[in-house]
Write a structure and sequence with these properties.
By secondary structure, the protein is mostly helical. It has helices at 7-10, 16-40, 45-69, 73-103, 109-127, 146-172, 178-205, 209-214, 218-231, 240-256, 263-278; strands spanning 132-136, 141-144.
Length: 279
């Protein structure tokens, strides 16, 4: 009997542990933060939009994690074909969140039409099976549609420029304090730039491992966003920023216990976790 090698498992097995950590930790932190903000603000409009942004980001993380761990070629191909449209969607929702947050109003009808128009081409290419051109079974990698890939980068650039424009409008025409728009805006731009830069590098040069390491930085920028907008009273949650940072630290320390195998390391991390929870 001939035994076939499942390359989807073999080509990525050296990265399984770091893939789980780099994806699972941001998912846990992001969902916790989104839920905390939603509950504390009694599910306000801006909190609901923020939750949608976080949900789509976590959906992308979960899909990308399966690409590293999955053993089914069909499932890998299917999930890979969906990631670009999810990517574009959470960028657009991120811009929508920031505009509602800073301008303190819901976006106009024409702005929502622009969001739909930006998302439309990616949805069409995904629904018609054009998002990937083929699949390299030996390397377990999809041949991405070049048009969709570069359209994704175009939308990401538009979103980042949209955040910059919103900051200018808020501090100029609306006379808002610079700190109230610039601090969360800079954090969001950093979040987007790190994500899009590593995505561009991995897509152009087929070095997908770089995404694993960039994901460690994203929870930090997400924490800065939350800390800045809560301490600036935009969400009107008194002292929530400090608590959230503490909770995030607890999650980060606790998540290390999953991957430690040495008894001494486990003991030291457990002590650190207990001390962190006490503080």
């Amino acid at each position: 009997m001939i035994e076939f090698l499942n390359t989807c498992y073999e080509t990525t097995k050296d990265f399984h542990q770091i893939a789980i950590y780099s994806h699972a930790v941001p998912i846990a932190i992001s969902l916790f933060v989104a839920g905390y903000v939603a509950i504390k603000t009694k599910f306000s409009l801006v909190a609901r939009i923020f939750a949608a942004f976080i949900f789509l980001f976590c959906l992308w993380l979960a899909g990308d994690l399966y690409l590293w761990l999955g053993q089914s070629y069909r499932a890998v191909i299917y999930i890979w074909s969906l990631l670009d449209v999810v990517n574009i969607a959470f960028f657009i929702i991120g811009l929508h969140f920031f505009r509602v947050l800073v301008l303190n109003r819901d976006t106009s009808l024409w702005e929502k039409f622009v969001y739909i128009a930006l998302l439309g081409p990616s949805v069409y290419m995904t629904m018609t099976g054009m998002s990937i051109d083929g699949f390299n079974q030996v390397e377990c990698e999809a041949y991405e549609n070049t048009l969709l890939t570069y359209y994704k980068f175009f939308v990401e650039a538009v979103v980042i420029l949209g955040v910059v424009h919103t900051i200018i409008v808020a501090t100029g025409r609306l006379k808002m304090r610079v700190s109230q728009s610039l601090v969360p805006g800079a954090a969001l731009i950093t979040f987007f730039l790190i994500f899009s830069t590593t995505e561009f590098w991995s897509s152009v040069f087929d070095v997908y491992e770089i995404n694993l390491y960039s994901l460690f930085i994203l929870p930090i920028t997400l924490g800065v966003i939350i800390y800045s907008i809560t301490n600036l009273s935009i969400f009107q949650i008194r002292m929530a920023g400090t608590r959230l940072i503490a909770y995030i630290l607890v999650i980060l320390v606790a998540s290390q216990l999953i991957f430690l195998q040495n008894l001494t390391d486990i003991l030291l991390s457990s002590i650190t976790l207990v001390v962190t929870m006490a503080f």
